[in-house]
Amino acid sequence: MSLDPRLRIHFVTEDDPLYVIEFFETFFTKYPRSEFEIIGMSIQEPFNESRIATARRVSSLYGPLGFARLLGRIAVRKLRRRSIATLARREGVSLMPTKSVNDPLFVRRMKASQPDVIVSVAAPEIFKQEILQSPRLGCINIHSGRLPTYRGMMPTFWQMRFGEQHATVTVHEMAPALDAGAVLGTAECVIQEHDSLDRVMIAAKRAGAHLLIRVLSELAAGDSKPQPLDMENASYHSFPKRDDVKSFRKRGHRLL
Question: Could you read off the pLDDT of 15-33 as tens digits, one per residue?
Fold first, then answer.
């Protein structure tokens, strides 16, 4: 048994060089190394689907020109070797690849590594009971939306689409039902009158990193106070369609 008093953390995330990486760049810069030990990271494909399927999905949202601009950004970052995996290696964090966190082999490996907590940062699949029960303190998720109103996909988009003045970032316990676990902490990012999804998503990822550090410190100290969600008026949002983008733009917002 380890005598190291630090909180043992395993991250599950997706391979996103544009937005999720902003979270990890902030987190790795700011987290207290005397309190936390990052014992591993699992990086999955976005949306848990093929790259071709993801390209079609993103292209349908941003349109041909916007999609081309995103591809250009990704190409530049790859040339500069800017990726979540590169950040992890630089920090000395072990990578534990898996196609699914619910795979029995992955669950066994996770239990053997004895994490105190598993943190989902845009993990592209629903965690089932076996993996949820594997860490000592359970699994927690960072969601860039106010719960339970903005459950589901692209919560930053939907908060802007429906005229919210702030994008709320929520850290919550994970449960078998999607985005339904008790809230451990929130942070807010201002949405300007005429804003871009790009800017707000980056701001939300950075705010989420600071929020997670606070929540993990509370967990480690035994000071966490989970607030159960009232699911009676919960809403779920799927990936935006063209009409949703039109309504988003009518509010004076842009995607990029």
Answer: 999 999 999 999 999 999 9
Sign of CA dihedral 52, 142, 126, 231: negative
Structural domain including 167 reads 7-250
pTM greater than 0.85 (yes/no) = yes
The CATH code of the domain that includes 61 is: 3.40.50.170
256, part of any domain: no
Write the CB contacts of 63 (distance below 8 Å, at least 6 apart in sequence): none
Number of folded domains in the chain? 1
pLDDT tens, position by position, 202-223: 999 999 999 999 999 999 999 9
**Coil, strand, or helix at residue 186?**
strand
Query: Does residue 2 fall inside a structural domain?
Result: no
